[in-house]
Amino acid sequence: MNPATDTLDPRQRLALRIAIGAWIVLFVFCLLWELWLAPIRPGGSWLALKALPLLLPIRGVLRGDTKSFQWALLLVLAYVLEGAVRVFEPAPYGTMAWLELLIVTVFFVAAIVYLRPFKRAAKARAAAQR
After folding, report:
1. Are 40 and 47 spatial neighbours (Cβ–Cβ below 8 Å)?
2. DSSP readout, 3-41?
3. What confidence tens digit (pLDDT) does each residue in 79-105 have?
4. Structural domain spans, the chain
């Protein structure tokens, strides 16, 4: 761990680990989905490139950087939209979309639990400066 994450309480540390795991699983899942499991075209599709934006904040997510997590929370909304649109497609695409929504939800909840104490501390600092 790094100094920024050494002072975390156990619940926050668990949320960080779950969020990091969900982020990595989402990246791998997006690649597997579009290349092997249920590609739009046989043999894989260019839609696998949708996994690349997940690499942009990966360094900060792995370090537990709050700004990177906030950015990742915004980025992951695109994957929520994709999953919500594709969930009504026939199997196996609909099933894959449900799995994507599940992974994204796990990341989202874990990231919010991880970031909540930082948000409270920032609010307390802002109130103390008034």
Report:
1. yes
2. TTTTT--HHHHHHHHHHHHHHHHHHHHHHHIIIIIS-SS
3. 999 999 999 999 999 999 999 999 999
4. 10-129
